[in-house]
Amino acid sequence: QSALTQPRSVSGSPGQSVTISCTGTSSDVGGYNYVSWYQHHPGKGPKLMIYDVSKWPSGVPDRFSGSKSGNTASLTISGLQAEDEADYYCCSYAGSHTLVFGGGTKVTVL
Amino acid sequence: QVQWVESGGDVVQPGGSLRLSCAASGFIFGNYGIHWVRQAPGKGLEWVAFIWFDGSNQYYADSVKGRFIVSRDNSKNTLYLHMNNLRAEDTAVYHCAKDPGSWYYMDVWGRGTTVIVSS
Q: What is the structure's pLDDT at A87?
């Protein structure tokens, strides 16, 4: 159950787009279409942003989009806004009734 | 509105035990599976455990298997995490998180309760 690999940080100016990658293996990200993404502001509970690779929960703006290619999933934030500044985590089903998270990416709005 | 109230976090010595609780409101608790997820200081999220809606099955991360037990009391809308033989590396904020029925993601999370394992 090794953690998925995410960049430590990404940054962008308001209105720009940023993309966060999440790299795993064929045993997790590449093997299932069960990747989810969470936004986490310190001191709060994480918030579901994307599930099943590219689906939006109710209430999440479509500025957030998800995709996957091979063993790498991606979260793209378009039209970056100040309130998007947070930590973001990917999560994948890893078989045998287990889940694995990424190490997290800090998004900074310049 | 779905809400979680987590409690039970404390400072405990290595080798000690602790029981965390998560009280739920705003949804039919007994209809949903629930995850425990933790975050160690300065680290990312780590999936810990999952329990089925009726408590009939539980699954654990290798890092806690054999030491932690997840249980639930649907009559009290409450989830528990029984933590035994605690280690320094169990120091973390522990979150409970509702599963919407898929098993593969969590749609509502609590703020978490803090466990510190230290002598």
A: 97
